[in-house]
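Supplementary notes for students who missed Thursday's class. We covered one full example, reproduced here. Read the sequence, then the structure, then the short commentary at the end.
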Amino acid sequence: MSHADSIQAPAIPPDRALQELLMGNRRYVSGAGLHPRQSPYHRSEVASAQHPFAVVVGCSDSRVPPEIIFDCGVGDVFVIRTAGHVLDDAGLASVQYAAEHLGVELIVVLGHSGCGAVHATVDNLKALGPLGKLLERIRPAIDAASGRPGELLNNAVVANIRLTVTRMKSAGPILAGMIPARKLTVVGALYDLASGQVTLVE
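Structure (token representation):
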């Protein structure tokens, strides 16, 4: 990240930023994507500084590329991706950087149907090393979803989105301080692999 990255443009309000993402997703779903801001000219324009209007914290799944499913351009979204969108210190630091230095006011935690990391946790997969630690971070979502009406995996995917949102809201001191001060909005969203549609998770 260059020093020029921290030169802030006027921030886009969270509600407008969210609207931009959802409108882009509707274009993607309908096959009417604009593929905006991807020309060589725009690439040259953003080479010296970035001004993303949203952070997307998503899963590493190859079928869920945020820039494509939201029909965004180069420099539009600041993306952090890990299996099951589990955030470690590096992930939280990346979100903090975007909020503090790039002036982004919207964070979207993007889960998806059929998430492999959640599925592995539901199946109680035994894994050693870092993967085992990652699955343990998802375990509370499985516990929260157990016993509820409906299919356990679907419920657990939604519970895991909510879990990541909650963890981010309590990540102090920077993020936890910015959210109550209304300088930062965090929302959860679910991507359907079959339809391509993104819906908000309350």
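Commentary. Strands lie at 54-59, 77-82, 106-112, 185-191, 198-201. Residues 3-201 form a domain with the Beta-carbonic Anhydrase; Chain A fold (CATH 3.40.1050.10). If anything here is unclear, bring it to office hours.
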